[in-house]
Design goal:
The chain has 183 residues and is mostly helical. The protein folds into 2 domains: 69 residues, no CATH class; 86 residues, no CATH class. Helices cover 73% and strands 0% of the residues. The protein contains 10 helices and no strands. The chain is globular and about 45 Å long.
């Protein structure tokens, strides 16, 4: 969520004050330093341990953000984060529980995400992309495929609950792989 807070669009959506923006910037730097070796640490863990460690980090980040943001701002940030993550967020136990997924649905979602990861891996095994925009579009297609496949698994009640979790739509403009804005 912290990376989202550094985005000017998100800051505007949350109506951050100048003081909050300064605190978010300082917090970002502080947490970046604290979690510098996290990627390496996670590689050595089992999937279950990795999930627990990531959840602990996320909880710590949220705790720190709660000191900077108003309750409504933090809630909206959570909604935006879920929108950015898409239906893949349903693989997280706490989100799956809120939506009311069955164990069978959760298993199917894990399989869809495994398949999506294989597709992404295949893209990157082709070597550095000559056309970064094309690579970004391919990644977007995979994301859309994931959302479509997971969406097919949900009941109407679960879809309604998901909509409640993500709130009002927010269009976040990403810069694909460091390319110029507006492309």
């Amino acid at each position: 969520m912290l990376f989202l807070l550094n985005n000017p669009q998100v800051q505007q959506e949350l109506k951050l004050t100048e003081e909050q923006r300064d605190k978010v910037s300082a917090l970002s730097e502080q947490l970046r330093e604290k979690f510098r070796g996290l990627g390496q640490e996670l590689r050595g863990l089992s999937p279950e341990e990795r999930e627990k460690r990531v959840q602990a980090v996320n909880e710590e980040v949220e705790k720190e953000l709660a000191k900077v943001l108003k309750k409504e701002q933090l809630q909206r940030l959570r909604q935006i984060a879920l929108q950015v993550e898409g239906l893949a967020a349903l693989a997280r136990p706490e989100i799956a529980k809120q939506v009311g997924l069955t164990e069978g649905q959760q298993k199917q979602i894990r399989e869809i995400l495994r398949e999506a990861n294989e597709k992404r891996r295949a893209l990157f095994q082709q070597g550095p992309p000559a056309d970064r925009q094309a690579m970004f579009r391919e990644m977007q297609k995979i994301r859309e495929w994931v959302d479509e496949q997971i969406g097919k698994l949900l009941t109407e009640q679960q879809k309604k609950k998901w909509q409640e979790l993500i709130g009002e739509p927010f269009k976040l403009e990403f810069r694909p792989f460091g390319g110029p804005r507006g492309q």
